[in-house]
Design brief:
Strands 4, 5, 6, 7, 8 and 9 form a 6-stranded mixed β-sheet that branches. The protein has a 3-stranded antiparallel β-sheet with strand order 1-2-3, with helices on both faces. By secondary structure, it is α+β, with helices and mostly antiparallel strands. It folds into 3 domains: 2-133 and 372-411, no CATH class; 146-257 and 348-363; 264-331. The protein is built from 16 helices and 9 strands.
Length: 412
């Protein structure tokens, strides 16, 4: 019974697309440089099965390119219908591997698409998704009391060709990974009974890029503009205090309240105490807890002064001063008592969780090695999925494909 229903549905879809293709070809106006080569038939695969589609084919001698107007207008992706292409991209980006995506499509929908073909469609569409992430922003509204912007970087394992002449953290100075940046924007309307901030449900959107921090900062700012940067009552930038992110904050979010992640501050407090008394000292943990309590009382400047006074000699003082540099640079970003009293987040857990789920969950599995474009394209689709923007992107994608039928751009 199910097979009969699928065959009927597939026949109907094939007939409808053939009718649409015939109408499109009848009304298409080619540019002077395009030569009609006649009708060609391709096999099209949809959710319910495969069917032949006959349509006109044109060739542009100047560009050395072929073009089928019906393919572009119908939104076909390498022989897949838009509905199946969307499903392929969703599975290919969401599942841990392309092979698992192949099996999932077969087991849940009886749809036979090889892992290699899934990869091909994801990479074809993912490039467009990355460009859509980087598009010029239209300012959006924000009715939340607080708009948060956060960013972090993580390494993605790469194939050797992508790592040539790149410096890294291995003992020989070489790199095994490439840095990818992830940024997120979310809102907060309320605090809980204890006065702790509560992130608004499904308010987080993401952007990603393998570009330098100098290029990523403006991209993240564009996302913040879409989310209402210009109309938000308060904007908070949450970062981990790394120099690159610090510079990004100064250049792209200079008028925003900036907060350094409290847990990174504690990590660096450990570095200061290690330089001062050594990690094996019996009072190390007790003094680290004291740092935590005093940081939460806006005492970072006092901690810096007291630590400098406790140095025993010039050699120790140099090591301690180097470790204290993190706090010296970020005094204004570490007024945690005041931030908590205002009901604000002091941790960058949202973007760090995103690095683990959006990036790590797909690109940092055991045995994986990526090209830059391969990882960037799949991460763009994952960001759009996590941001609940896939439908908006696919509308853009269909319009972009249909625009290839405009004779003016083709003739230019």
């Amino acid at each position: 019974m199910r097979t009969a229903v699928f065959k009927s549905a597939n026949a109907l879809v094939g007939w409808l697309l053939q009718q649409a293709a015939d109408r499109l070809d009848a009304h298409y106006q080619p540019s002077p440089q395009q030569t009609r080569k006649g009708r060609e038939t391709i096999g099209v695969q949809g959710i319910f099965g495969s069917f032949p589609l006959e349509r006109d084919y044109y060739y542009h001698a100047g560009k050395g390119q072929g073009h089928s107007p019906a393919d572009a207008a119908l939104g076909l992706e390498v022989g897949y219908t838009p509905a199946l292409a969307k499903l392929i991209c969703l599975e290919g980006a969401d599942e841990p591997t392309y092979l698992k995506a192949e099996r999932h499509l077969e087991q849940t929908g009886g749809i036979a698409v090889s892992a290699r073909q899934i990869q091909r469609v994801v990479q074809r569409v993912g490039g467009s998704a990355q460009l859509w992430q980087e598009r010029q922003a239209q300012p959006g509204p924000c009715d939340a009391p607080v708009l948060y912007v956060s960013a972090d970087g993580t390494g993605v394992p790469m194939v050797p060709e992508e790592l040539k002449r790149r410096r890294g953290k291995q003992a020989d100075g070489t790199a095994k990974t490439r840095q990818v940046y992830l940024g997120c924007v979310f809102t907060q309307h309320r605090t809980d009974e204890q006065g702790h901030p509560v992130r608004d449900y499904e308010s987080t959107t993401y952007v990603s890029s393998f570009k330098s921090i100098a290029a990523f900062g403006p991209l993240l700012r564009q996302e913040a503009v879409r989310r209402g940067l210009g109309s938000a009552r308060k904007v908070v930038l949450l970062i981990d205090g790394a120099v690159g992110l610090e510079n990004m904050g100064r250049l792209c979010f200079k008028d925003c309240l900036q907060i350094v992640d409290f847990f990174h501050a504690l990590e660096h407090a450990g570095h200061v105490l290690e330089a001062l008394i050594g990690k094996a000292h019996p009072d190390y943990q007790q003094r680290l807890r004291r740092w935590a309590k005093r940081l939460l009382k806006d005492k970072v400047q006092a901690l810096i002064q007291e630590t400098r006074q406790q140095c025993a000699g010039p050699a120790q003082a140099a090591a301690v001063e180097q470790a204290l540099g993190y706090f010296v640079r970020n005094v204004s970003r570490m007024q945690y008592g005041s931030f908590r009293a205002a009901g604000l987040f002091i941790g960058s857990g949202v973007v760090e969780a995103g690095c683990k789920t959006v990036i790590g969950g797909r690109c940092k599995q055991s045995g994986m090695f990526w090209s830059e474009s391969g990882a960037e394209n799949i991460l763009a689709l994952r960001c759009l999925h996590s941001s609940r923007r896939l439908e908006d992107f696919w509308k853009y994608r269909l319009n972009e494909r249909a625009a290839h039928n405009d004779a003016l751009p083709l003739a230019a």
